Amino acid sequence: MIFVVGAVEQHGPALPTSVDVLLPMAIAERVAKQIDGVVSPCANYGYQSLLRAGGGSFFPGSLGLRGTVVISMVTGTMTQSIQQGWRRIVVLDWHLDNVPFVFEGVDEALRATGDIPGLNIVKIDNPNGLGVAVQPGLLHLLFGLDFHGWFVEHAAIWETSAMLGAFPIKVQTEKIVDGRLPEPMDYEYCLHRFTVLLLAVFSGKQLKPVAKRVNVS
């Protein structure tokens, strides 16, 4: 069984918010046909978009869940799937911000069901697990020497090309722009009370709740 975990997240002006659902489901269905497998209905909603990876949850249309909810969802669906007899399961996670929560959910399901002979669960993350970054020469073929990391590639060449190949009708090509960040971000934005608490701990001062850059590299 192939279980897809996606997300509802902005992907720029040219792509729909359902990119993280459409692409992995298309891949899963194609693979399932080749191996006579089964594709479970997709978990459409994932963890909230982070600024560095997907622009943040402030964009209209980016709808995310708390990490605890994602963990519970994966734990529940995986536990029941195992209890119903599934022994070969692929978890295809297309949303990079989901990664730790989906892994935790799978781990909790394995703990809940115990040591079952023949049970194999493989977790694949987008895009590295799909071979784009591990096949010799492929990364260079796609980007040349102009690759600055997968965070910068969000809604850019890779995802736009994949959507044009799989779902061209859903791409508003007239809205594609040739632009880039001046430089990749090596930090996240932490807002309001969390920022105040974090900075107050290090400075020992009472601070106003304003947005600050917090280096996390």
Characterise the protein shown here.
With 217 residues, the protein is of the alpha/beta class. It has two domains: 2-178, Rossmann fold (3-Layer(aba) Sandwich); 186-217, no CATH class. 37% of the residues lie in helices and 11% in strands. The chain has seven helices and five strands; from the N terminus they run E-H-H-H-E-H-E-H-H-E-H-E. Helix 4 links the parallel strand 2 (88-93) and strand 3 (120-125). The longest helix is centred in the N-terminal third of the chain and has 17 residues, at 19-35. The relative contact order is 0.15. Residues 192-217 have low confidence and may be disordered.
Task: Provide the descriptors you would attach to this structure in a database record.
217 residues; alpha/beta; Rossmann fold; 2 domains; two-stranded antiparallel ribbon; 7 helices; disordered C terminus
Low-confidence stretches: 192-217
Order of helices and strands: EHHHEHEHHEHE
Helix content, binned percent: 25-40%
CATH architecture identity of the largest domain: 3-Layer(aba) Sandwich
Give the strand line-up of the largest sheet. Answer: 1-2-3
Determine the CATH topology of the largest domain.
Answer: Rossmann fold
Number of domains: 2
Strand fraction band? 5-15%
Query: Could you say which overall geometry the principal axes of the C-alpha atoms support?
Result: globular
DSSP strand tally? 5
What's the overall average pLDDT, rounded?
81
Main CATH class of the largest domain: Alpha Beta
From the alpha-carbon coordinates, what is the Rg to the nearest angstrom? 19 Å
N-to-C CA distance:
37 Å
The CATH superfamily name of the largest domain is Creatininase
Supply the helix-strand structural class.
alpha/beta
Sheet bearing the most strands, described?
A: 3 strands, parallel
How many helices does DSSP assign?
Answer: 7
